[in-house]
Fold these 2 entries.
Entry 1:
Amino acid sequence: MKGKVLQNIGFSSLFLCILTTLFFLGTIIYFIFSRGIQVISWEFLTQAPRNAMTEGGVAPVIVGTFYLTLGSMLFAVPLGLACAIYLCEYSPKSFVVNIIRISINNLAGVPSVVFGLFGLSVFVKLFGFGVSILSGSLTLGILALPLIISASQEALVAVPHSIREASLSLGASKWQTIKRIVLPTALPGILTGVILSVGRVAGETAPILFTAAAFYKRGYPNSIFSEVMALPYHIYALMTEGAHPVKQKAIAYGCSLILLFLVLLISAIAIFIRQRQRSYHG
């Protein structure tokens, strides 16, 4: 009887935690939506800012955010997945490898502004890329690497060894087993890490502040070495600079709503792919 009471208390506590989380999530979404929807229009989504960014739209800002996010993922996903494959499938079990794994996990907790300073020192100045899409994408890619590596490792480790042994016993090489058996099976877990990385990268301000973002730029970027406007920095600039705080505040909420929608859209697409993979391999 006592055990059942404790069990009910535990379940009730978990349910309360879920309701609390959903409440705060719903409050944030409602807060951003109710204030941002007022400025959303076709003109706002398709035109460039004008009149000290108090009129027009944010089309170049949306495009810049897309370029930075896409560039960072093109850099981070292949490299992170390759690192995870090596650590899980090829690396010997040794003290050094364990140190590397711990270092990767600790790297995920480094403040984003530190990555921004690293990108400024290495990509902007040392490599001479300047303040550009390339510098920002590489910096954001390094920021996303620890999360992608950790999630990919967990997904690869979760694949049963019996599947690997069955493939090897049929004459497949180790790489063929990884490519055709292990990776497709682990793909849902890998996509989870990519989803979380996209959400973090798209909303980062400090790294692009040093490496890619421009306060204001006419037109769209024409190369990977161009400066770019991006939603996170644009929101920051609207809320802290300028002589029209009321108009700028409304536009900032509109940008926040667009950023939230883009992250949710990308996450929804990745979740859809993940669910299809799970049902296919299930």
Entry 2:
Amino acid sequence: MTFPLFTPDQDPGPSFLGLLERLGMAPPEFTGTLEADGITHGTTVLAIRTVDGVVMAGDRRAISGNFISHHSMEKVFPADRHSGIAIAGAAGPAMEMVRLFQLNLEHYEKVEGSPLSLEGKANQLSQMVRSNLSSALQGLGVVPLFAGWDERLEQGRLFQYDITGGRYEERRYATGGSGSLHSSTVIKLRHTPDLDFSTAVDIAVEALFEAADEDSATGGPDPVRGIYPVIATIGRDGFERMANEDVVARTTALLERLGDRSD
């Protein structure tokens, strides 16, 4: 395999997306029409800022109209060692965006010899969401959450986006997807400035459970299939996905508390 050569005025620099455009390999824009019921959508995701960093979580259900298309979709991914991305919206473009974002960050680090700053990563994702606007207007919208550990500021930070690529940093929490209203209500009532990872994980489990209780597009815990939310922490030591056994234990404890309350 040979690497492409560019003249100085054509050099795409450390941008992987710029490299694809120069090689004529950028993803084509969607110009057709789609029926809403035929598009698979991921639903509820959330991120909670703590004194230790950020907790990210997402339910596992994907829907096509009023049908459940997938019971165990992944919606929370590492972007690189110290950041993560959670996706809501059209599943196909969202998954492609995640892969391109991961490659872009890896490409930048290899070319420059050091990782992009957290602010720079958030801006890169903003440009990718903006480039998807034409597809979003035709029903293929992607609205991610992005969070990471800022090594310069020594703290966790999280960012929310809209379909135009608008980027907004949130100081306490952010939610996305069809169950965002119900999950954000739980987080708002439980959030405190001194939250640690453990407490924030419990809040995330409860927020997703309450969202599933009110929103049919959000999947609740499924003990029969062994399907539970995906939860990850992002702190000084980087992105770490919580073991499924720990999520099961937290969910079981929540259900026991709710059972006692109803009694």
